[in-house]
């Protein structure tokens, strides 16, 4: 029985998103970095304020935890806007950790895909690129946030292209499985 790690449509969406993200990072590295920092700061503030409001409206167990969560969110948002450079450095570590974890999971997924498609190596290469990217960022976080943004751009473009190529392979399997099902229903 076919058990895809991802649908071909999902891979296309992820691939296009990675290509767009990569192109923006390469063409507008300073703006991309500042945008990521501002987006994170705004997100932290909004979620923090929301949690504080919810904590004030609720009179139930766990209210204290919600209050702490809200204060932490507001603090993180304010720190982001007061010290954006520190936030950018922290963000590079978060991105690096995410890339390593994602890469390991993609490598594991490629091993599972081996049973169903040829050229699963594309997903394996994507996973390896993720791990390598993450490790490089962890090793050189002070090499400059702009350089890391460029590296993010190259990674996004390579990874996006690999996902789009893999989506074609997965789509072929989906079609071959959908064909017999359609004939049985008739």
Q: What would you note in describing this structure?
A:
Helix 1 crosses helix 2 and helix 5 packs antiparallel against helix 6. The protein has six helices and no strands. The chain has one domain. The chain is globular. It has 186 residues and is mostly helical.
Quick structural overview:
With 186 residues, the chain is mostly helical. It has six helices and no strands.
Beta strands, count:
0
Order of helices and strands: HHHHHH
Oligomer state of the chains in this structure: single chain
Q: From the helix content, strand content and strand pairing, which structural class follows?
A: mainly alpha
* Shape designation: globular
Percentage of residues in strands: under 5%
Q: Indicate the radius of gyration in whole angstroms.
A: 21 Å
Q: What is the average per-residue confidence, as pLDDT, rounded to a whole number?
A: 82
Q: Could you describe the largest sheet, including whether it forms a barrel?
A: none
> What is the number of helices?
6
Number of domains: 1
First-residue to last-residue Cα separation: 21 Å
Helix content range: over 70%
Which stretches are low in confidence, meaning pLDDT under 50 for 5 or more residues running? 1-5
């Amino acid at each position: 029985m076919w058990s895809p790690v991802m649908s071909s449509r999902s891979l296309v969406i992820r691939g296009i998103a990675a290509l767009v993200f990569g192109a923006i990072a390469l063409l507008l590295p300073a703006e991309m970095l500042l945008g990521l920092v501002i987006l994170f700061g705004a997100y932290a503030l909004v979620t923090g304020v929301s949690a504080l409001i919810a904590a004030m409206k609720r009179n139930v167990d766990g209210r204290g935890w919600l209050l702490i969560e809200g204060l932490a969110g507001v603090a993180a948002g304010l720190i982001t806007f007061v010290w954006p450079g520190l936030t950018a450095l922290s963000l590079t570590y978060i991105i690096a950790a995410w890339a390593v974890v994602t890469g390991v999971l993609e490598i594991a997924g490629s091993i599972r895909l081996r049973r169903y498609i040829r050229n699963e190596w594309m997903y394996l290469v994507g996973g390896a690129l993720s791990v390598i990217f993450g490790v490089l960022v962890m090793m050189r976080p002070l090499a400059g946030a702009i350089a890391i943004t460029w590296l993010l751009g190259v990674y996004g473009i390579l990874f996006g292209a690999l996902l789009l190529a893999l989506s074609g392979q997965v789509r072929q399997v989906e079609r071959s499985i959908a064909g017999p099902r359609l004939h049985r229903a008739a």
